[in-house]
Write a structure and sequence with these properties.
By secondary structure, the protein is mainly alpha-helical. The protein has three helices and three strands. It has a three-stranded antiparallel β-sheet. Helix 2 runs antiparallel to helix 3.
Length: 144
């Protein structure tokens, strides 16, 4: 009986058990914070990029074609280039962009880029996947 009592009072290995319990929780918390910060960064970058792209859409300015000096990009390509220039760390495919505009005297949205002075709407669809496995189930399809 005395031997059993001494064995239960022995605290060797207690730190290892505590570390085994706390480490996964600490890692989950750390990666959750990183995921949340990345999500905020992507959101702010997209907002800034769409703002820059919409400025080009409203003014009608065109960028010079980097592949063909002396010529200019088309209106939709200029808007996409402005968006990509404002968000260099994000890879945005051409299929992610959609354009619509409302003529100055109109009351409904029309597909396309319109002209200078029209009310422009630039929509960019971007999917972001969290890296923390326990956060993915909170979003439909595991993507934001």
């Amino acid at each position: 009986m005395m031997r059993a009592r001494k064995r239960y009072r022995d605290e060797r290995g207690a730190s290892l058990v505590e570390a085994a319990i706390v480490t996964p929780l600490l890692l989950l918390l750390t990666f959750g914070i990183v995921d949340f910060a990345t999500l905020l960064y992507v959101n702010l970058a997209l907002e800034s990029g769409v703002s820059q792209a919409t400025r080009y859409a409203v003014t009608g300015n065109l960028m010079e074609d980097p592949d063909n000096p002396g010529s200019q990009l088309s209106r939709p390509e200029t808007i996409k280039a402005a968006m990509r220039k404002a968000t260099p760390t994000l890879t945005i495919p051409d299929s992610a962009f959609s354009f619509s505009y409302m003529p100055a005297d109109g009351s409904s949205w029309v597909a396309g880029t319109g002209g200078p002075g029209d009310i422009q709407r630039v929509t960019v669809t971007y999917e972001w996947t969290p890296m923390t496995p326990l956060i993915k189930p909170f979003f439909p399809g595991g993507k934001v």
